[in-house]
Write a structure and sequence with these properties.
heterodimer, A: alpha/beta, nine-stranded mixed beta sheet, five-stranded parallel beta sheet, 24 helices, 40% helix, 19% strand, elongated, B: mainly alpha, 44% helix, globular
Chain lengths: 612, 87
């Protein structure tokens, strides 16, 4: 797994594997092998041609195969043209004759060792006056190189590298004490490069200084620098290649425009429908500060022009109330161009949001803490890019920090105001493709074990009764003593459902308690499913097990209540769907009945284990 | 053939040679692709793989499997015996 998985998502498995191995090991031999395997690929999958001219003040020639490999992953078919060593202005001036085909980009890579070597030894070069004079000349040189390029090849994007602070020079402490010292000199040259990039005009800063600072000394090899004037270690070459590719990528791949993000356990810690607003974790203390930082990053993306979609399985009223009443809530309800806060499948909501925004699903990026939701989206809407790979909030934050999917070389005013153009439109009902969904659920390898409630699991069932709010038909908060009494009632049916799937053992996620009213009638007292297990059909599996037992006990008639609360709208239609009829209604309470007892099959995608 | 000689495997992969190439065949003289550019990359690769830094005088004696093997052994990198090597 690497941050460039989405670059190569259409490559065949063999090439993906070779690339992953090469990047993981940073082995130059494995890079060569992966590059050879790319050569064997169908050219149609290899991406467009990308001609890049590199002008460098040091000897980058040995690492060209690594750079070429990195650009191939974009994907692209790179053609790297290396100008003569440390001869930038002369080469640009000579290109006036015009090559037959202009490059797609020109990249200038330079460093202080060649463009201002005196600053490494300032006292040998007239510190401070003479050195400051040389620094001014170097800053003017940046301007001169850029205007030379613009005179000769104005239509070719120019990437100008910033200058890393050398890893090795004497007296770094003293050097920092004077505006003519090495540290300040590097800073001033880079400041000029950033100013040139600010003007736009097709000139971009290639921030090698920032990259080198983040990489640290492991990217460098001083011996190779002396030996061949090639400064990178093997690991450094690979990282440098990927960084170059990332910088050029916006030239050929449009950025993703939409971030669809989950709410519970993502924008805040906790589940609003279950834990209550007062127990959500968001704020300046750990771990709420991680969620707050996620919100800051997301808000920054919105202000940069990325459209936000709220993608949450919740009662909309609960979510909205949390937005309005959580004191540290940074994102506002209206920051989202589209809000899909309901109980529909998320992949259907993504399709609907794309239609409402008039954008393709290939513009969408998703963050969701749930393994289940991410897998469903991955399988059923494969064009959508899933940003995080783990439910951990810090991993979600890291994914936001590291991703390149929102990279752009420049932002227009229109980009920054894009969210204003997308007025909220009415939500639409979307009929999902049920065949695809059943196929997905089958792939989860869901296994349900129906257990009688007893000493081994009553603790968990009592906990669930106490805190489940959403999928809970009666919301009766029975104590352990009350449950024990029910279990001892002759004819009672008390079942729990334990769930296992591809993601692991989910434990007990559903429970049902039913008591006989008389010999032939059974009344459902409680029926609930944990919010972690919604959408998989486990309620049907539990219902089927209950029907089966009831028939064995010669039950003739079932009765069941739905007691509405602020939280349990998700199950308001459940008994109708299960075939019961409403026989009485009183205030917030509805009584349903079923007679005679039907047969009821569990969902075909759930494997039911023998009852324990 | 010694299967798990990491140096032999590294050189075979690096120069795209058959995996069972006799180590004594792996010399700069015999391999046209082992030019000065490849040499720079090979040194980077060896230093990464075996976590060593070569001394300056060692750099000019890395022209074959056996020279590299000798340099690595001076760096206390232990490699398994390779029966194909002349003793």
């Amino acid at each position: 797994m690497s941050v460039i998985d989405h670059w190569i998502q259409n490559f065949p498995a063999a090439q993906k594997e070779a690339i992953a191995t090469a990047l993981h090991s940073a082995s130059l031999g494995k890079i060569r092998r992966a590059a050879r395997s790319l050569g064997e690929m169908d050219p149609k999958l290899r991406g467009r041609a990308l001609k890049v001219e590199i002008l460098c003040t040091y000897n980058i020639e040995p690492i060209l195969p690594v750079l070429s490999f990195a650009l191939s992953c974009l994907p692209a078919q790179p053609d790297l043209q290396l100008g003569p060593l440390d001869n930038i202005e002369a080469h640009i001036a000579q290109s006036a004759g015009r090559p037959e085909k202009l490059p797609d980009a020109r990249v200038i890579i330079w460093r202080v060792e060649e463009i201002l070597p005196e600053s490494l030894f300032p006292f040998s070069h007239g510190f401070p006056e003479a050195i400051v004079g040389r620094l001014e000349q170097t800053i003017q040189r940046v301007e001169r190189v850029v205007s030379l390029h613009q005179r000769h090849m104005p239509e070719v994007p120019l990437f100008v590298s910033t200058i890393p602070t050398p890893l090795h020079f004497s007296s770094p402490v003293f050097s920092a004490q004077h505006s003519g010292g090495l540290s300040a000199a590097v800073g001033r040259i880079n400041q000029k490069i950033f100013e040139v990039a600010t003007r736009g005009d097709g000139v971009y800063a290639f921030d090698v200084a920032g990259w080198a600072a983040a990489q640290g000394s492991s990217q460098a090899d001083p011996m190779l620098d002396f030996l061949a004037r090639q400064p990178f270690s093997a690991r450094g070459q690979v990282a440098f290649g990927l960084f170059l590719a990332r910088n050029l990528r916006p030239l050929i791949v449009p950025r993703r425009k939409v971030l669809a993000i989950d709410l519970d356990e993502t924008l805040w810690g906790g589940v609003v429908g279950e834990d209550g607003i007062e127990n959500l974790r968001l704020g300046h203390d750990f771990p709420g500060n991680v969620h707050l930082r996620i919100q800051r990053e997301v808000l920054e993306l919105r202000n940069r022009g990325i459209l936000l979609v709220l993608l949450s399985k919740n009662n909309e009223a609960d979510a909205r109330q949390a937005f309005e009443s959580l004191p540290d809530m940074l994102l506002k309800w209206d920051d989202f161009a589209v809000r899909k806060v309901d109980w529909n499948h998320k992949h259907n909501n993504l399709v609907a949001a794309a239609a409402e925004l008039g954008l393709g699903l290939d513009s969408f990026v998703v963050i969701d803490d749930s393994d289940y939701e991410r897998e469903q989206i991955r399988q059923l809407t494969p064009e959508v890019l899933i940003l995080n790979r783990s439910s951990d909030p810090l991993q979600i934050l890291r994914a936001l920090w590291e991703t390149d999917v929102f990279d752009a070389l420049m932002l227009t005013i229109e980009d920054r105001q894009r969210h204003q153009d997308y007025a909220v439109r009415a939500a639409r009902d979307f009929q999902g493709d049920h065949d695809d969904l059943a196929e997905f659920l089958k792939s989860l390898e869901i296994e349900a074990t129906i257990e009688e409630i007893g000493s081994s699991n009553v603790e968990r069932v009592v906990t669930m009764l106490g805190k489940t709010n959403q999928f809970n038909l009666t919301t009766r908060r029975h104590s352990r003593t009350q449950v024990q009494a029910m279990l001892q009632t002759p004819g009672a049916i008390a079942l729990a459902l334990r769930l296992r799937d591809r993601f692991g053992d989910q434990g007990i996620v559903a429970a049902l308690l039913a008591l006989p009213s008389d010999g032939a009638t059974l009344t459902i007292d409680s029926f609930l499913v944990s919010c972690r297990a919604l959408g998989r059909g486990v309620e049907d599996a539990l219902w089927a097990a209950m029907i089966d037992r009831a028939k064995h006990q010669n039950v003739q008639r079932l009765e069941a209540d739905y007691i509405a609360t602020a939280k349990n709208g998700i199950v308001s239609e459940l008994y109708q769907r299960l075939g019961l009829s409403c026989v009485a209604e009183e205030g917030i309470s509805k009584r349903y009945a079923l007679e005679p007892m039907p047969t009821f099959d569990p969902p075909p995608w759930i494997f039911i284990n023998a009852t324990t | 053939m010694q299967k798990n000689d990491p140096l032999q495997q590294l050189l075979a992969e690096f120069f795209d040679l058959p995996p069972d190439t006799d180590p004594s065949e792996i010399t700069q003289d015999r391999l046209p692709s082992w030019d000065s550019l490849a040499m720079v990359q090979l040194i980077a690769e060896l230093q990464r793989t075996f976590s060593v830094d070569f001394d300056l005088e060692e750099i000019q004696y890395l022209r074959s499997y056996s020279e590299i093997r000798a340099a690595l052994s001076r760096k206390a990198v232990s490699l398994p015996d390779n029966p194909l090597l002349p003793s």
